[in-house]
């Protein structure tokens, strides 16, 4: 089984992408991907409608799609909590997303505190974008948060994006509640993650349909055992997101 832990649906005004349902279904069929965790674009015109679009797709294909709530932390505590609660409890979403570059909010900033407090209260993990967009997206900025919330699972999206992969690895070594999603990391770096923290805290992601073949090939090139391969491609995501 293969679960894509990081994919987007719909228009993103920050990155100028717009992957639709047809594109998602096509890439999953081509690359034999069984399920995907979907996020809206980081900058959208209508967050409520964008999240409902993910929900509608999950209803059309039960057991294949699950949502991750991406929402600016520059809302009041109550507004943020109410929106997150709606997506988690009514739409069945599985996590919250903090994008430090898109939201202009570092993980250790006061405004980000509501993200982690809300996730803790709703009992869901938090995915944090890392890599592109430094210094706000430095992996090390997740360390104080992970230490403050030791029972909260934190996923570093892109695991530093290659350039900051070593820093993402240090964060994971220091904090047992940090997991690494490896899209856009080079194969040798992914191998170093396997050797250092094990597949139990790693998960496969693509970020966009055009990148799927590259990400799958990356893992195939590592010559992992069947058990390691299954853990990275689905086991960790199933455990962390409870799917």
Characterization of the model:
The protein is an alpha/beta fold and 243 residues long. It has one domain: TIM Barrel (Alpha-Beta Barrel), CATH 3.20.20.140. It is built from ten helices and ten strands. Strands 1-4-5-6-7-8-9-10 form an eight-stranded parallel sheet. Strands 2-3 form a two-stranded antiparallel ribbon. The protein starts with a strand and ends with a helix. The model has no long low-confidence stretch (mean pLDDT 96).
Describe, in short, the structure shown.
With 243 residues, this protein is of the alpha/beta class.
Structural class: alpha/beta
Strand order of the largest sheet: 1-4-5-6-7-8-9-10
Report Rg.
16 Å
Please identify, by name, the CATH architecture.
Answer: Alpha-Beta Barrel
Total DSSP E strands: 10
What summary fits the major beta sheet?
8 strands, parallel
CATH classification class: Alpha Beta
Overall outline: globular
Low-confidence stretches: none
Q: If you average the pLDDT, what whole number results?
A: 96
Offer a few descriptive terms.
single chain, 243 residues, alpha/beta, TIM Barrel, 8-stranded parallel β-sheet, two-stranded antiparallel ribbon, 17% strand, globular
Q: Topology of this protein?
A:
Blueprint: E1 3-8, E2 10-12, E3 17-19, H1 21-31, E4 35-39, H2 47-60, E5 65-70, H3 77-90, E6 95-98, H4 100-103, H5 113-122, E7 126-129, H6 143-148, E8 154-157, H7 165-174, E9 178-181, H8 187-197, E10 202-203, H9 212-220, H10 226-241
Parallel strand pairs: 1-4, 4-5, 5-6, 6-7, 7-8, 8-9, 9-10
Antiparallel strand pairs: 2-3
Helix pairs in contact: 3-5, 7-8
């Amino acid at each position: 089984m293969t679960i894509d832990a990081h994919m987007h649906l719909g228009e993103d005004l920050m990155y100028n992408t717009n992957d639709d349902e047809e594109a998602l279904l096509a890439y999953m069929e081509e690359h034999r991907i069984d399920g995907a965790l979907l996020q809206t674009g980081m900058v959208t015109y209508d967050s409520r409608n964008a999240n409902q679009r993910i929900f509608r797709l999950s209803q059309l294909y039960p057991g294949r799609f699950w949502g991750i709530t991406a929402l600016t932390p520059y809302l009041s505590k109550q507004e943020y909590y109410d929106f997150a609660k709606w997506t988690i409890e009514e739409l069945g979403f599985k996590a919250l997303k903090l994008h430090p570059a898109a939201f202009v909010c570092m993980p250790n900033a006061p405004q980000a505190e509501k993200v982690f407090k809300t996730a803790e209260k709703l009992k869901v993990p938090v995915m944090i974008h890392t890599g592109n967009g430094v210094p706000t997206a430095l992996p090390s900025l997740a360390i104080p948060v992970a230490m403050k919330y030791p029972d909260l699972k934190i996923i570093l999206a892109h695991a530093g994006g290659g350039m900051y992969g070593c820093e993402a690895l240090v964060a994971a070594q220091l904090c047992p509640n940090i997991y690494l999603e490896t899209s856009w990391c080079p194969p040798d770096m992914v191998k170093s993650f396997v050797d250092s923290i094990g597949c139990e805290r790693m998960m496969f992601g693509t970020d966009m349909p055009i990148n799927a073949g590259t990400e799958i090939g990356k893992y195939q090139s590592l010559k992992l055992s069947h058990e390691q391969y299954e853990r990275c491609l689905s086991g960790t995501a199933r455990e962390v997101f409870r799917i």
